[in-house]
Design a protein that fits this description.
By secondary structure, this protein is α+β, with helices and mostly antiparallel strands. It is built from seven helices and 16 strands. It binds zinc ion.
């Protein structure tokens, strides 16, 4: 097995696990780009990554999104196996942060009709819960209902453990959350679905068709890019190629993605 990418500093360990891949069409995953050469070169159908972060702080484990679980195809749903292989058993997870209610992020919180992480507080934003409630027949809402006793909603930006702040980053969905992790090695923003492909750092109009509010989406994308560039913050984006971690560079007034190097 390929060792998962990880960062370790004093009291914190950040590991990136793969849930597999998500087959998407260009019409679904890459809209709003305008006349963008780079986007035009994409094939009609392709696969994007599903990379999710698990944080270990002292004896606490925080999982940020849970992948497709049993709701996707054969290409996905591998997160639990990956966690297990790294010695992180489902009962050891203390918090599952749900960035938003799309099924590629929350499907994995249920296994065999029961909560997959039985000891974890599952946190999502109140705005996202209200949004999910609008489609009671959706797979997403059914999944959320199966973890209801474990679910906690937050109404404002909230620090769940020292140095781990959940921030509202709306646009993709109304209650989308980004996780800010402060370490003595630097700051990391786990941005989940704020960005869809690395090129969306350069063209922030680029979005998935499901984006709920594209004007707000662009605003959020620009804000985080400017912040990350100015303060040398690392960004993690779950659908970027593994491990999905990098920084923002400015080349001739254009912001660009710079992935970390992996051996
Ligand atoms: Zn997604």
């Amino acid at each position: 097995m390929k060792r998962p990418y990880e960062i370790q500093c004093e009291h914190l360990r950040m590991i990136v696990f793969s849930d597999g891949v998500f087959p998407v069409s260009k019409n679904f995953f890459l809209v709003g780009a305008g006349n963008d050469q780079e986007v035009e070169q994409f094939p009609d159908d392709f696969e994007v990554a599903l990379n999710f972060v698990c944080l270990q702080i002292g004896d606490k484990h925080i999982l940020i999104d849970a992948g497709f679980g049993e709701t996707g195809g054969q290409e996905s749903g591998h997160l639990l196996t990956e966690l297990n292989q790294s010695g992180i058993k489902p009962h050891m997870i203390d918090y599952v942060v749900l960035s938003h209610s799309h099924i590629d992020h929350i499907g994995g919180i249920v296994k065999n009709d029961k909560p997959a992480f039985p000891n974890a507080t599952h946190i999502m934003s109140k705005k996202e819960w209200l949004y999910a409630e609008q489609t009671p027949d959706s797979k997403s809402f059914q999944v959320l209902n199966k973890v209801l006793p474990l679910l906690e909603v937050i109404e404002v930006d909230t620090e769940i453990l020292p140095g781990v702040l959940l921030k509202h980053t709306p646009g993709h969905t109304p209650g989308h959350l980004t996780v800010e992790v402060r370490t003595n090695n630097g700051v990391y923003l786990i941005t989940n679905d704020v960005y869809n492909i690395p090129h969306s750092i350069s063209n922030t109009d680029l979005r998935v068709i499901l984006e709920e509010d594209s004007i707000q989406g662009v605003r959020t994308r620009n804000q985080l890019i400017q912040l990350a560039h100015k303060e040398q913050i690392f960004i993690h984006s779950c659908h970027f190629p593994y491990p999905g971690l990098g920084t923002i560079e400015k080349v001739n007034s254009l912001y660009q993605w710079k992935s970390v190097e992996i051996q």
